[in-house]
Amino acid sequence: MIFRKLRKFLKPRLKHYPAAFRLYEAISWAFTRSAFSPKHFLPTIAAIIFPMWIAPRCRLARHYVGEGKLDKAIAIAGDVLARKPEAYLDDDTFLWLAVAYHLDGRSEELRQVFDRTEDRRSEMARELQYDRLGLRFFPKHFSGIGPLGLLDKYMKADILGIIPRRTNVILAPPENFPNPAYLRYWEKYFSLITHPRAIAVLAPLSCCLEERSNQLWCGPRGMRNVAMIGRAAQLQWDAESRGPLLELSAEHRERGYRLLRELGVPEGAWFVGLHVREGSDSDNLRNSDIRTYRHAVEEIAKRGGWVLRMGDSSMRPMPSWPNTIDYVHSGKREDWMDVFLWAEGRFFIGTGSGPQLIPPTFGKPVAIANFGPIATIVCGKDDILLPKHYWSEKKGRYLMLAERMQPEYAFNESIGAFAKYGIRVADNTQEELRELVVEMFDQLEGRQADTQEGRAMQVRFAELAATQQFYPLKIARAFISGHPDLF
Predict the structure, then answer these.
(1) 67 and 136 co-located in one domain
(2) Model pTM greater than 0.85?
(3) Is residue 223 part of a domain?
(4) Which of 109, 127, 145 is a domain's end point?
(5) Residue-number span of the structural domain to which 81 is assigned
(6) Model confidence at 411, in pLDDT bands (50, 70, 90)?
(7) Buried b vs exposed e over 350-385: b needs ≥16 C-beta within 10 Å?
(8) Strands 389-392 and 423-426: what pairing?
(9) Domain count of the chain?
(10) pLDDT class for 90, splitting at 50, 70, 90?
């Protein structure tokens, strides 16, 4: 923990000194990610000498997942699970074994892992009679900004009776979450327990009654894919013309516009938030290159708007484009300001990453670009989806949308795993991204620019969504016009 805080303190400061930063990166790699790092070397030795020693092997599998070496992680996971370790592996360890299957697109093995953990939790809850308490916990698994955004779907499903009504409890201090200000907005619907002693008392209950974040559970045990829950809840919410669950506070609105002026946005100008995922896990297809968004940003600037780039300070600096502010490197980032940008922007541009889920909780639409596994989409009713392209080297063409729903592709987020199937994942082009922004403007301003062919493609996409049980959001014109043969 101390070293993690030290790295967080040093890294942004050393970026101003290239030679020192390169030395820091080399030392950090040697001690954390190289083959001889303690976290890697010791579990490797243990796995060789003591193949039945489960815990070190699971840590090694987790390390392989982080490196994108899914074959090695899955080999360990398969052997560990064959030893029936339910009695002495905690849920977090099971989760990391499941992540390997998830990233590799192995949906059946993934379902089996979650069924096993759910069987164990349900049996324990019944034996201890915890299931009679009417409680649902949202603990540390919801500590990411994306899982926090999923609270919207859980609460809508709870209100509508799609899932059993419960008293919903968030069990963690706000500082454990990436955005405490956003977490506080959910106090209207959730009981937020922050006192360490209360958390310690309730922890035994939580382990049996806690919800998961974005795990793919389904089947007769009542667990369902979060995309399925999101579809059912949002469709019924739309049909009943209900509004967003959250509303920006007057205090955050006033402070937000004041900080906008300090950042250089003129008085009265409108703005758009932009987030492009670029994680350190280079094998993850959710990553994209922000430099390809230039035409989209220029389209907004041409119309008089401003773009504020969101994310964290580990991201590469943004190029100098018109009417653009690299907010994450401005030195003025605040948790409440993030909330302001999500809630008050004209719309939001996101990728398949956590921030994409937040604006719809305030009723703001998202232009979702460079999205990979469509079957996992969780979104708002006014969002527009521009998927990435899956080129099949064997077939000499792009995969059709229905083909992308096959088990090996549907939930796969690993570029390396796709390569094993002869699939090359291609990002959206600059022109596609610009056209996505144009389409969002058309939607907001009430212009209908869809062709008859385009509307027919939307119907086909909605039919596919119904079959696969994900929300039938609008698919981008740029995708339809460029690839009408994929529907």
Answers:
(1) no
(2) no
(3) no
(4) 127
(5) 33-127
(6) confident
(7) bbbbbbbbbbbbbbbbbbbbbbbbbbbbbbbbbbbb
(8) antiparallel
(9) 3
(10) low
